[in-house]
Amino acid sequence: MYIVYMDETGDSGYPGSSEYFLYTSIIVHQDNWNTFMEINYNMKKNIKDKYKIPIKQEIHIKPLLTDKNPYRQYKLTHEQRKSLLYDISQTIACLPVNIINVLINKAKIDPDKSDQYDIQERCVNYCVQRIENYIRYSNDNEEFLIISDEGRIADMVRVTRKMRKFNYIPSVITGLSYRNEIKSMIEDVLGKNSKDSFPIQLCDFVSYIAYNYYKAVDCGMELPNRVAACIDKTDLEALMCIMEPVLNKKAHPLHKFGIVNYPK
Q1: What CA–CA distances, in Å, run from 18 to 22, 107, 182?
Q2: Does this model's pTM top 0.90?
Q3: CATH for 2-262, among 3.40.630.40, 3.30.420.10, 1.10.10.10, 2.30.30.140?
Q4: d(CA 236, CA 152)
Q5: What is the pLDDT, as a whole number, of residue 88?
Q6: Which residues, other chains included, contact 79 with Cβ-Cβ below 8 Å and sequence gap of 6+?
Q7: Which of 43, 85, 169, 249 is 20 to 30 Å from 179 by CA-CA measure?
Q8: Judging by beta carbons within 10 Å of its beta carbon (0-12, 13-18, 19+), is residue 212 exposed, middle or buried?
Q9: pLDDT of 214
Q10: What are the extents of the domains in the chain?
Q11: Phi, psi at residue 263, to the nearest 5°?
Q12: C-alpha to C-alpha distance for 37 and 43, rounded to whole angstroms
């Protein structure tokens, strides 16, 4: 069985407070789970030794990078915060995982039809479909279980229940839709507070980096001032390159790092 951890970056409202909405899924097989958790714990110990951030302190990357509470008390410099991003990325690259990123670009949504475009539902649907595809092609007999941060569980349960009963996806050959219900997922999406889950904290990290890479590099937009004080486009490119060995680039072969983006 595979365990899938999920977390998001951005606002799912339209137009909302963000340009995009992105879900990251970190997929780990049960046989590799103990190794996965041991590497995570060792990373947290290294962060404690190097940056004086306690092991029990949640690593929530946006407020950490922008020097907001509760991270201000650790008095990290811009260079230290940047260094921390590189350290975490290098750890992620060594994990026995596969990572899928799915993004909704709100600028591509037809404003006249925005009330019919459920951003949260679409993003979860596209993400879960690719998880199913990855696991089905990796091992036909395996199943998966999703664990996510608690904030959006009700919506995720609603979407995945629907996908089990009726799931229409477009053919890449004809463009016509056909039914392909999710069969490998067991149980409803389970919620866990991110402060108690190293893996969900890693999802938060990857989603934030992928989100800002897409924004700054793919779309040529400026980073917020407090983020730009620590990292720039070159750093985002470098961080994605470090994590590249565990990114599922088959999810979207036309994107350098496999970031799936909709609408088409």
Answers
A1: 10, 10, 30
A2: yes
A3: 3.30.420.10
A4: 27
A5: 98
A6: none
A7: 249
A8: buried
A9: 98
A10: 2-262
A11: -70, 160
A12: 10
Please tell me the distance from the alpha carbon of residue 142 to that of residue 1, in angstroms, as a whole number.
Answer: 5
**What φ, ψ does residue 26 adopt, rounded to 5°?**
-110, 120
Residue closest to 212 by CA, chosen among 18, 69, 77:
18
The label of the residue with tokens 């097989």 reads 29
Neighbours of 73 (CB within 10 A): 10
Tokens at 21, concatenated = 């909405």
pLDDT higher than threshold 80 for residue 180: no
Q: Residue 98: beta bridge partners?
A: 27
Residue 129 near residue 167 (C-beta atoms within 8 A): yes
- Written as one letter, the residue type at 102 is V
Q: What is the pLDDT of residues 142-174, one digit of tens each?
A: 999 999 999 899 999 999 999 998 776 765 556
Using an 8 Å Cβ cutoff, are 76 and 63 in contact?
A: no
Instruction: State the DSSP H helix or E strand holding residue 217, giving kind and residue range, or none if neither.
Output: none
Please give the structure tokens belonging to residue 85. Answer: 């991003």
How would residue 89 be classed by pLDDT, with cut points 50, 70 and 90? Answer: very high
User: Which pLDDT score is estimated for 226?
Assistant: 92
Q: Is 20 left (phi over 0), alpha (psi -120 to 50) or beta?
A: beta
CB 3 within 8 A of CB 32: no
Q: What is the average pLDDT across 31-58?
A: 96
Tell the residue number behind the tokens 């009963």, with chain if given: 165
Phi, psi of 59 (to 5 degrees): -95, 100
Cα→Cα distances 246→25, 74, 242, 259, Å: 11, 30, 9, 13
